[in-house]
Amino acid sequence: MTVAEKPKPESAIKPFDKPAGGLSALASSILCLREQGIIGKGTRTLLRSNQPEGFDCPGCAWPDRNPHSTFEFCENGVKAVAAEATARRVTPEFFAAHTVSELAQWPEHDLEAQGRLTTPMRWHAESDRYQPVCWDEAFALIGRELRALGDPDRALFYTSGRTSNEAAFLYQLFVRQFGSNNLPDCSNMCHEPTSQAMPEQIGVGKGTVTLDDFERTQAIFIFGQNPGSNHPRMLTELRQAARRGCPIVVFNPLRERGLERFVSPQHPLELVRGRGTPLASHYYTLRIGGDLAAVTGLIKAVLEAGAQDEDFIAEHCAGFADLARTVADVSWSTIEQGSGLERAHLEQAAQIYIQSPASIICWGMGITQHPRSVATIQSLVNLLLLRGNMGRPGAGACPVRGHSNVQGDRTMGICERPAPEFLDRLGAEFNFQPPRAPGLDTVGAIQAMADTPGMVFFALGGNFAAATPDTAKTHAALRNCALTVQVSTKLNRSHLVHGRQALILPCLGRTEMDRQANGRQAVTVEDSMSMVHLSAGMNTPASSELLSEPAIIARLAKATLPDSTVDWLGLVENYDRIRERIGRVVEGFDDFNRRVRVPGGFHLRNAARERDWRPVGGRARFKAHAPDPLPAHQSSAAGLLTLTTVRSHDQYNTTIYGMRDRYRGIAGERRVLFISAADLQRLDLPAGTWVDVVSVWHDGERVAPRFLLVEYEIPTGCVAAYFPETNVLVPLDHHEQRSRTPASKAIPVRLRPISAVAP
Ligand SMILES: Nc1nc2c(c(=O)[nH]1)N[C@H]1C(S)=C(S)[C@@H](COP(=O)(O)OP(=O)(O)OC[C@H]3O[C@@H](n4cnc5c(=O)[nH]c(N)nc54)[C@H](O)[C@@H]3O)O[C@H]1N2
Ligand SMILES: Nc1nc2c(c(=O)[nH]1)N[C@H]1C(S)=C(S)[C@@H](COP(=O)(O)OP(=O)(O)OC[C@H]3O[C@@H](n4cnc5c(=O)[nH]c(N)nc54)[C@H](O)[C@@H]3O)O[C@H]1N2
Ligand SMILES: [Mo]
Question: Tell me, which fold does domain 192-400 have in CATH?
Answer without folding.
Answer: Dimethylsulfoxide Reductase; domain 2 (3.40.228)
